[in-house]
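Run: sequence + NAP -> complex structure.
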Amino acid sequence: MPTALITGASAGIGAVYARRFASRGYKLVLVARSLEKLEDLAAELGAAYAVSVEYIVADLTNSDQLQTVSQRLSEGDIDVLVNNAGAALLGTFEEADATSMERLVALNVTAPTLLASAVLPSMVKRGSGAIVNLGSVVSLMPQYFPGIYSATKSYMLTFSQGLSAEVAGKGVYVQAVLPAATRTEIWEKAGADLSQIPNVMEVDDLVDAALVGFDRREAVTIPPLADVGLWDTLEQARAVFPSGLGGSPAARYINHS
Ligand SMILES: NC(=O)c1ccc[n+]([C@@H]2O[C@H](COP(=O)([O-])OP(=O)(O)OC[C@H]3O[C@@H](n4cnc5c(N)ncnc54)[C@H](OP(=O)(O)O)[C@@H]3O)[C@@H](O)[C@H]2O)c1
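>> structure
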């Protein structure tokens, strides 16, 4: 039986990932801060799917608690890491306070990076494994989402693409999942009214679509994007950049005055 470790499994997208991987026969390691929710989900999944479910109560913005999860990942038996735990921070960059931004970067950027780093050596050694990183469509259109949330999600996309290029040849699959607005608690926690947002996806639909992409080994899965040609065009534009950029400044930056 393979094992999946899912962060932010106590609610929303992470809880649905836990249900889906349990239904596929995976053993689970669930991570979040809410003990009670993790206990309830572990009991539900153990009873419904007869899989073993462990949980780790950890605040991933706390470096000691993050280290506990990294330690579990480095034990060598994790086949799938779902880097899902995350939060939103609404409002403009101008009005954002330093503590909130620091926590957001710790949760949305630092934690998934260090967790992937902890699990990767054993995956490379085995020549198999998967890392799923939750990004967001706002990373492709940051002009519609003020503040640094979209930048943290851009990191997840770039991180996934770079890591994929690095480890695909070693048998490790990396997927970036880019949801648009999805019906979870994240909005309310951030102080937003979900009823004011058009085109909200149901969380079961989001995860089921993301898993279609996972099974196809897509590098980037954007569940709400109907026209995949838009994404292909963006990727083709990226691919025209030569890998050997460097040397002299481009002619337009040479001051001849
Ligand atoms: N929902 C959307 O519209 C949407 C759109 C694009 C991308 N995403 C991304 O999808 C991912 C999941 O979001 P969601 O909508 O499912 O959010 P959610 O319903 O608010 O769930 C977030 C999960 O992360 C956990 N979490 C939050 N802070 C944590 C911390 N400091 N340490 C450990 N765990 C923590 C929460 O559990 P505890 O509170 O128990 O710790 C919960 O299990 C996030 O990365 C988010 O950015 C969501």
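>> summary
The mean pLDDT is 97. The chain has one domain: 3-253.
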